[in-house]
Amino acid sequence: MHMTVNSADHQSRLNDFQRLLAQETLYFKGRLPVPKQTKSSAKIRILSWNIAGGRRPELIAEQISGFSPDVVCLQEVDWGNAQTERQDVLEVLTNRLEMLGLFAIEFFEVASPLRSRRRAGGGVSGNALLTRLQPTAQFRVDLPVVVDWQGGDDDFALSWRVRRRMRLEPRIGHRCGIAADFIIGPHKLVVCSVHFEDKHGGVSGRWSQFRHAVKAVQDRNREPDVAVVAGDFNTIDSRLSRLVTGDRSSHSPGKPVHLAEAAWWKQTLMPTLGFRDPFSTSAWTFRVPLLFREKLDWIAVKGATVIDRGIGPRGSSDHRPIWTDLLLDAQ
């Protein structure tokens, strides 16, 4: 089930700026330098980062530039929201970095007096790709809906914390990924940036979204040479995190209750689809000070050899950026 913003009720909740946008449309920002950059080398660097809206895009661009990535997967990218001073965050990043930006809308962030200043809406949020390479194609991947953000505040099957969050931050839309195809030498590479659900659905919901993203990439490309699904997987379920998170539907069939979700993904789930992530489960990317640290961010790779990897500082986001170098000609 996928929800749209076409109904009269949903349209009435949007402002003039939001009505100019369409959830199904991919938006292009910036452009590649002329002549367009190509890459014949089989080595490529991919970075992934949840930028938490992008409140300081100039600083974010500076941090990204320091890693010299070829392709960047971004999550929680703002466009027109009051919390980020109504900026087109991806546009700022593309101009600073001289990269091409591709943007997919996840949510129309409905303006509301109930929203805090730090989470003020009025625009849209979504996922993005930044690239120094010319894509041969790009596409949106609509993910399975595991929680109804548009009307779930009246669903008493949800915890009171989740329903309260929905009332305080009204939004219209659903989770999605944005993907692009690249030709690098003799190889076809597909990279998909995703942000999985953390408010409901638990491990099973997130795993269903990952499987759907993988299937969409493979169905479209007939098993590309190299596939990368990267982003904020929200693999937050652990003994400590359950004390402060709103999601109580955290169990996954077969997962021991004492085992952290990230370990379950790495040891059991991801290998079943032929993917692997180069970071240990103790390599945390998100933390709640004094309470817990978790690995929420992943770069899942199939068909390439990882030759290097690293994690950057938190900087302007509550997540740390992660990057990996891939060798495409090693199968």
Structural features, described:
The chain is an alpha+beta fold and about 325 residues long. Helix content is about 20%, strand content about 30%. The chain is built from seven helices and 15 strands. The strands form three sheets. Strands 1, 2, 3, 4, 5, 7, 14 and 15 form an eight-stranded mixed beta sheet that branches. β9 (about 185-195), α6 (about 200-220) and β10 form a beta-alpha-beta unit. α3 (about 55-65) crosses α4 (about 90-95).
List the main descriptive attributes of the protein structure presented here:
alpha+beta; eight-stranded mixed sheet; 7 helices; 331 residues; globular; 15 strands
Topology diagram in text:
Elements: H1 8-12, H2 16-19, E1 26-29, E2 43-53, H3 57-67, E3 71-79, H4 89-97, E4 100-109, E5 124-131, E6 137-142, H5 160-168, E7 171-173, E8 176-184, E9 187-195, H6 202-221, E10 226-232, H7 261-269, E11 286-288, E12 292-294, E13 297-302, E14 305-311, E15 322-327
Parallel strand pairs: 2-3, 9-10
Antiparallel strand pairs: 1-4, 2-15, 3-5, 4-5, 4-7, 6-8, 8-9, 10-13, 11-12, 14-15
**Biggest sheet features:** 8 strands, mixed
Low-pLDDT ranges: none
Mean pLDDT figure: 89
Structural class per helix/strand content?
alpha+beta
Tell the overall outline: globular
